Amino acid sequence: MFLLPTDIQIVVIRKVAKALNPRGKFLFTSPAQAVTWHDSLTGRESISLGDERYEQTLGAEGLV
């Protein structure tokens, strides 16, 4: 997830929400703070939007 650009991360969350069965579960963890870093396996930039932004996005899609 974190290797994806910000806008695509949001799209993935929307698609997951639509794909889940009612009362389905989506386990997702992220750093609490918004942060970027270089992925040790790929060398590419990784982006975390931080817990506040993810909670807003997940909530907007009906996920809690």
Key words describing this protein structure:
2 helices; alpha+beta; single chain; elongated; two-stranded antiparallel ribbon; 64 residues
Structural features, described:
- The chain has helices spanning about 5-20, 50-60; strands at about 35-40, 45-50.
- By secondary structure, the chain is of the alpha+beta class.
- The protein has one domain.
- The chain is built from two helices and two strands, in the order H-E-E-H.
- The longest helix has 14 residues, at about 5-20.
- The chain has a two-stranded antiparallel ribbon.
Number of helices: 2
Overall pLDDT: 95
Tally of DSSP β-strands? 2
Distance between the termini: 18 Å
What radius of gyration results from the CA coordinates? 12 Å
- Give helix and strand order, one letter per element, not per position: HEEH
Topology at a glance:
Blueprint: H1 6-19, E1 35-38, E2 45-48, H2 51-60
Antiparallel strand pairs: 1-2
In a nutshell, what does this entry contain?
The protein is α+β, with helices and mostly antiparallel strands and 64 residues long. The protein has helices at 6-19, 51-60, and strands at 35-38, 45-48.
